[in-house]
Amino acid sequence: MPRALITGITGQDGLYLGELLASKGYEVFGLVRGQSNPKVALVERVVPSIQLLEGDLRDLSSLIGVLEVAQPDEVYNLGAISFVGLSWKQAELTGEITGMGVLRVLEALRIHTGGDMGRVRFYQASSSEMFGKVRETPQTEATAFHPRSPYGVAKAFGHYMTVNYRESYGAHASSGILFNHESPRRGHEFVTRKVTRAVARIALGLQETVALGNLDARRDWGFAGDYVDAMWRMLQQDEPDDYVVATGVTHSIRDLLDVAFARAGVEDWSGLVVQDPRFFRPAEVDLLIGDATKARERLGWAPTVGFTELVRMMVDADLEAERVAAGRRD
Ligand code: GDR
């Protein structure tokens, strides 16, 4: 039975990846900071066979201890402060966890394997936010980085560390440059879920408007369930490498609003959306669109859910969840 350790197990991707690996017969271990984390119950419901281990990406010796218990064949480093907007307000902490956390996991692996790093495969959750102010469209593995947030800078550090451990120590370390990926499990602070939840609540008469920032930003949005499959495929390759994972299609926040409101039966949303300076960012990433040709050719990976289907899936799930919650309140 192969063994896998996932950091960030309580996040959207941790849940999908845990489910995927358990379905493939893996023994799955998840890193948690403490059992009192309110999301632990959700993880245990979604992946009943999960074994949770306590550790912290800020604490090297805790990571070494976790590796000794889990004895993993594969390590997926998904743990991070992942909300870009927060990263300006907590820039140092973002650097500490999203950036330095990667180095600590790699160092823990180097120590744990006695320098024979190739025997444990490592996945780093890199991000399209590293491209930032893009120099070419679409973005590939060869596109230069120009991160535009403390989060993007920290992710670039983690990405280069991953490459560096591959080149310095022969680590089987791969980096997935994942573009935005969403699902009904997405946190409410990210724009897709913020919109689909608000649309559901507006349609049910529970809320009047939704306050957003820049409506003209464009993102390449895919389905998180598809993207964790790409992570797993990367670690099944003989050689470690870097891969862009994206749909190749870009949409604006306005397109997101069009599809989401239409799904709930609202054709004109102009009076329902207010723009609020609090949600604008000090520096914006205007346009992201990824070219996943390498992942398609080498990993045999392709997205199965398009933008419209994804947004409808999320609106439907939020309508259902809000109806259930409203029923409970009555
Ligand atoms: P992003 O995702 O920053 O791309 O990072 P997010 O959904 O937060 O923002 C996408 C775009 O929407 C604009 N926007 C708003 N965003 C939020 N959150 N809230 C708003 O009210 C709002 N109004 C407009 C933003 O300005 C931005 O342009 C995500 C995260 O999951 C990262 O962890 C991951 O690495 C990247 O995707 C790939």
UniProtKB/TrEMBL annotation:
Single Gene Ontology BP annotation: 'de novo' GDP-L-fucose biosynthetic process
Keywords for this protein: Lyase, NADP
Pfam families: GDP_Man_Dehyd
Sequence ranges assigned to domain NAD(P)-binding in this UniProt record: 5-314
Gene3D superfamilies, sorted: NAD(P)-binding Rossmann-like Domain, UDP-galactose 4-epimerase, domain 1
Reactions mediated catalytically: GDP-alpha-D-mannose = GDP-4-dehydro-alpha-D-rhamnose + H2O
CDD domains associated with the record: GDP_MD_SDR_e
N-terminal signal peptide: none
TM segment ranges: none
E.C. code: 4.2.1.47
Entry cofactors: NADP(+)
InterPro entries linked to this entry: GDP_Man_deHydtase, NAD(P)-bd_dom, NAD(P)-bd_dom_sf
GO molecular function: GDP-mannose 4,6-dehydratase activity; NADP+ binding
HAMAP family documented for this protein: GDP_Man_dehydratase
Function description: Catalyzes the conversion of GDP-D-mannose to GDP-4-dehydro-6-deoxy-D-mannose.
Family: Belongs to the NAD(P)-dependent epimerase/dehydratase family. GDP-mannose 4,6-dehydratase subfamily.
Annotated protein name in UniProt: GDP-mannose 4,6-dehydratase
